[in-house]
């Protein structure tokens, strides 16, 4: 442990000791897609009248822009609440993976889940570039996982 922080090697060692397997990028991508469709569907239902009255692609884009704060909050709350309470979102439940704190190996604290959720949403605004980091990280962590000090593992 360097400066009170766990190194990647320490985390891998602890995962092996606990017989936990890192979730694949494939499962994480499918989980993320399920969650994004679910929250998007709920937002469309919540603003059904507005979306049904938008006749062109441009009107839909303008409406989406007007709803930006609501959309950001909805996505943040969804990820924060599910990860803080259950250690997983509905997409993760379906894909049988979960988010764990790198120190306690339990579900993340409310604070860490909130940090992860907010960073994840900013990452989405920038074309998921922070998620690309998972491709080179030995623990398949995206930037929001590192910020929240969590790792995603198989949920047996």
From TrEMBL:
UniProt key word Transferase: no
Domain RDD: 23-148
Keywords associated with the record: Cell membrane, Membrane, Transmembrane, Transmembrane helix
TM regions (residue ranges): 29-48, 68-87
Gene source species: Caminibacter mediatlanticus TB-2
Name of protein: RDD family protein
Top-level taxonomy: Bacteria, Pseudomonadati, Campylobacterota, Epsilonproteobacteria, Nautiliales
Entry annotated with the keyword NADP: no
Membrane topology category: Multi-pass membrane protein
Localisation per UniProt entry: Cell membrane
